[in-house]
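ok so i was messing around last nite and threw this chain in just to see what happens. nothing serious, just curious
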Amino acid sequence: MGRITSGKSYLPIVQNADNFPYDRDYLETYYQLILAGDPNPHGYVRPETVAKMPWTSSFHISHEHPRTVTVLDSSSSSSQDGGVSSAAAFTAAFKQLVDACIAQDTFKLIARKHSEPFTILSWPSNSNIPSSAGGPGGRRGAKVTLPPVERVTMERFMAPLFGILLQGAHMVAYVRSRATEDDCGVISGLWIPRRAKHLFSSPGMLDATVAGGIASGTSALETIIKEAGEEASLGPELVRTRVRSTGTLTYVSSTDAIHGWTGESGLLCPGIVYTYEMELPEDVVPRPHDGEVGSYSLMSVGDVQAALLGNEFKPDAAVVMIDFLIRHGVVTAENERSFVRINEHIHRRLPFRVAEC
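result:
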């Protein structure tokens, strides 16, 4: 099914996506992003960004080790009592700051545009989740119903400036050739898009069939269904009945790895990617719809391998494609000498926890 790659390894490709140093001492050169009341860092900010940012009174900057950028908590009381919650206060502080950046055209990355809100996944942490052990006068061990936890959000374009953890969803669509109806068949082609040339990041490069960032309040599956319609003209019912969840990938990159990037360099970009795949009937053809995709091509597995080794894929999409090839037995420990290291890079331990509530 695959193509012999003449001893070439996929390791440099995944290292290009997971390119941030593993030595945690390197993070000491960054400022920790702190949300007041929680000592755990939720992002890492470059000194150059700290110096250039038009900070408002909602932020406190400490230049003493460990250097920090703290978002102050201006909440008045519990949101259940009609007051402003900590989450709402933090979100408002980020909103005020991005407004200032847009007005002053401070960063090329933002491009004087607002973008959709993304959840800061590391908040709340254990230190600011209410205890369920019962309050004053309550029985220890009694079941307590906690209110829904509000989330802190930040606009997507702003996120790399603060080095917060972002999440996205990618889907690979493919077709199989079968000798009979009961034959499991072999993968005969993958539907691969070429990104439009006008896009801000990685213009003209190859990508996963469907991909998108997961906006606040939206699930990974909902993102795939939405993007499948917008990018590939694939209907929601088709996707719901055929798509299959295949796991997550994690890596930490910097904006230096993004082909054609014209924004600020060296920004920390930790990411979680939810992966999906979908077998399509041979008569279903993805078609560009929203202008983000230039064209779709049905590529053989061998042609996809060659394109990967030729660095034709967007870095995060390359990781998704290599994961697909591993899952389907194309890339194995027998034909890839760096098989273990590749898997380590695409399942990296992240510098933040992910809130579970």
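not much to say yet. Residues 131-141 have pLDDT under 50 and may be disordered.
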